[in-house]
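Narrative progress, year one. The postdoctoral researcher (J.K.) led the effort to move from monomer predictions toward full complexes, under supervision of the PI. The following entry was the first complex the group processed end to end, covering 347 residues in total.
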Amino acid sequence: MDKVDSFEKINILVNDIRSLRKGYLTNFFLDKKRHSIWIQKGELFSMSFWGCHFLLHLTDTVNSLFFITATKECLADSLKIFLPMFPKQLVVDIVGDETIVNLKRLFLEHGFNEYETLYRMCRVGIVEYDELSDTRVDFAEKSDCQSILDLLHSFFNPLSEQLPCYEEIMDFISNQCVLVFREGSKICGFIIFEVNGMTLYLRYWFVLPECRDKKIGSKLFNEFLRAGHATRRQLFWVIANNENAIKRYRHYGFNPENLFDYVLVKPAIKC
Amino acid sequence: MKEKIIAILNELRPEFDFNEPVNFIEEGMLDSFDVINLVNELDSQFGISIDGVDVLPENFSSVDNIISLLQKNGVK
């Protein structure tokens, strides 16, 4: 296994597969900020086979598998060799429209289990928000970073929700992409989001269990919409069986897209 | 070629107007997931295989850039 120490290395892997001119399948969608943090922290590794390269993001909590491959057959052959060599728990996200079911099946045949399904919800149009704001909602400060990280890791699922690390949260805070609701010094809830031109992307929306039913979530959401008032598309991923959340999102005008994220987990091999 | 590219883009992201003279990447009209799908669709519809070194977001930031990319990869 080789450590990936630059984007150049990833480009070489992509180029190698493209040069075969047999096709291109991947679940690695470049996110320069996020992936540069992984590279800087020494958490990204690669393993190469004919017609298929694996990228592994290895952390204390989750080991994630990414593939860059020419064909499904190359992927299958490579999995057959690679998986017995990696005894730890492994998570893979298969992302795409309904046609990716074949890829999902391939991983299931290689010892992965269905863990969670997420789908993307989207709202298209001008953002409408309440002009009145609550002074208890404000952009997070750098000193809030550890508290937000702790809340994320206490209440969200690291296997299925691709939780950001400290450095990523700090980056969100620096870019004014984290809103918090405070009562005194206590953070009762937060929203983490990204604005990319005309697209507003909701990453995490959270209210402490004991603070729910106080409209804290909707106050945070209103400020989130205000922050993204210039966007024309708003989107996020939701866990498919989280019916309460889906109902709430529909209330805000979001509808499901034909885009799925199948989270599959291969258990650790017992010695 | 231009019409065909715009039709592919509209199929991919119908919520945006790709006739607008803006940077599709900076404006958030296409993300890295869309770029991968776009590469596969361009490969298939134009019968080519875009070089790996060219699979960079900046090459998909406008219709003109996509045309240049296709021409570089042998589309006339």
